[in-house]
Amino acid sequence: MADTQGRVAPLAQPWSDEDATAIGRWGHPEATYPPLLLTRCLQRIPALADRTRALGESLYLHGQLSARQRTIAILRTCAQIRCAYEWGGQAAFWGPIAGLTEDECDALVLTGPDDPRWSPQDSALIAAVDELEATGSLGDAIWAALDLTDEQRMELLVVAGWYRTICTLCNAMALPNEDWMRPWPVAAATDEGMPR
Q1: Which of 36, 60, 30, 62 is closest to 49 using CA atoms?
Q2: What domain of life does the UniProt record list for this protein's source (predicted)?
Q3: What is the structure's pLDDT at 171?
């Protein structure tokens, strides 16, 4: 395993024009961070990279959830899977765009849905992600507690599932955090306080 890149080497440079274009299509158009290690690894299989990017991009460009709802769901999914890489990128870049403070991003790793900082709807969303991870479904009580349309509920299921896939990929490839990403909250270094 390489010390700085994880278990899978990213696509080596020089990149072809097609690979450079594909890698450059990932992320926010105003992103100032360099091409992600994850995307450079995925680009070793261009067809898989394209399909993966298309679904993720659609959740941002044509999403039914608000930026805050989507980001809370993503960060909580990352916390449940204990994926420091994806959590770190999402917390650093998308957290501020969605209006989440650093403290709120950390709380999605360190505390539960009953934390007093959360509104009732934020709490319901966090509890829904927790239940999805624990059971693979949502019970009637959680379904009803979500103040969302059916379309938003369905999108929430896709967001949680898609980011579970991304987190599993990042964890299994042992991707290290990149310099610009937020570090995993220190108090979460042990299982104490971690969501289950």
Answers
A1: 36
A2: Bacteria
A3: 98
Structure confidence at residue 116 (pLDDT): 96
User: Residue 74's pLDDT is what?
Assistant: 98
Q: Cα separation of 36 and 96, whole Å?
A: 19
Give the three-class secondary structure for 106: helix
Predicted confidence (pLDDT) at residue 194 exceeds the cutoff of 70: no
State how far the Cα of 103 lies from the Cα of 72, in Å rounded to an integer: 13
How many domains is the chain partitioned into structurally?
2
Please provide residue 144's backbone torsions phi and psi, each rounded to the nearest 5 degrees. Answer: -70, -30
Percent of the chain with pLDDT over 70: 94
Give the per-residue pLDDT at 1.
36
Amino acid at 195: P
> Both 43 and 128 in a single domain?
no
Q: Which of 115, 131, 119, 107 is nearest to 194 (CA)?
A: 107
Segments in the chain forming alpha helices (H): 17-24, 37-42, 46-61, 67-81, 84-89, 95-97, 102-110, 120-135, 140-145, 150-172
The answer to whether position 74 is within a domain reads yes
| Domain identity same for 51 and 87 | no
Q: What is the pTM of this model?
A: 0.91
